[in-house]
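We emphasize that the prediction below concerns an isolated chain of 328 residues; any contacts that depend on oligomerization or on bound cofactors are therefore not represented. The input was used exactly as deposited, without trimming of termini.
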Amino acid sequence: MKRICIHVSFLLLIVLEACNSSGKGCTDPAANNVDAEATENDGSCTYDPVWVTPELQFQLDEKVHETSGLILWDGELWTHNDNVDTRLYVLDTFTAAIKREYLLEGVVNTDWEEIAQDSEFIYVGDIGNNGSGNRTDLQILRVEKASLKSGNLSIDTISFNYSDQYDLSAAPPNQTEFDCEAFVVFSDSIYLFTKQWVTGHTTLYALSKFPGNHIARKISTFDIQGLVSGATSLEHERLVVLSCYTGLIQPFLCILYDYRGNDLLSGNKRRINLSLPFHQVEGVATADGLKYFVSNESYSLPSEGIFPQKLHLVSLEQYLQMLQEEQK
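Result of the prediction step, given as a token string:
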């Protein structure tokens, strides 16, 4: 009997080793399903629900009541409206007051929904597509930063369409899977995150950073269970944060990290709920990856009243401090 027990135990050990031979699983210590034996993160981590209340809040000027994107550049916040207005607005980070305005002449604002940057350019996304889902004039304006400072504006255009949008029939309002309000700019490409009204998913696409007509190449899709409205990133820290909200206008942030290559949806995807019911968040920006400015546009709900445009300062330090220490 003793020999049989040893033999069975040995076989069981072999089976267990075979089951874990891939080494893939959840590797994030902050997750509720971390696999201590996993050596490669497979993006399967799940997390307990958390809620965060902003540390500070400011009401924004009526001029930016449809604020739709945010960046931090040279210690100042930059934003824009999402309809008709072709100005960029510079905000004070301590008071949220408008400090300066820049009129982008010779361009059109069909539906500006995002602003992003790299070291040389500001990118303004005329990419909103929720009206009928079949726009053929999607474009991102590329504004040279040096030209903004000199007053002699230099603007060029990145035009594109989606690699997998074969049907350009008109959809009912807010019933398309090809709306987009969020992108980040990395050294190699622009990465777009769609706002999918029907499924509540988001699809990641890669797009050229250079002027011309291009195809946005599909990379992957994730069930984010909400509507993505903005994005910010720290490329070298391999960190992306999306601003989102649910169909009930409950805002949340989604932290993306520990991803593989250029598939920004392949790693950990942690949801941080914001204690801001009925605030339609539209923009997000960070300088250090720990504290985030989040903006919401003016929103009216008959049963709840008017929620004016605001700027919020949110700390994610307790969720990201460990990540940044590991990367040092």
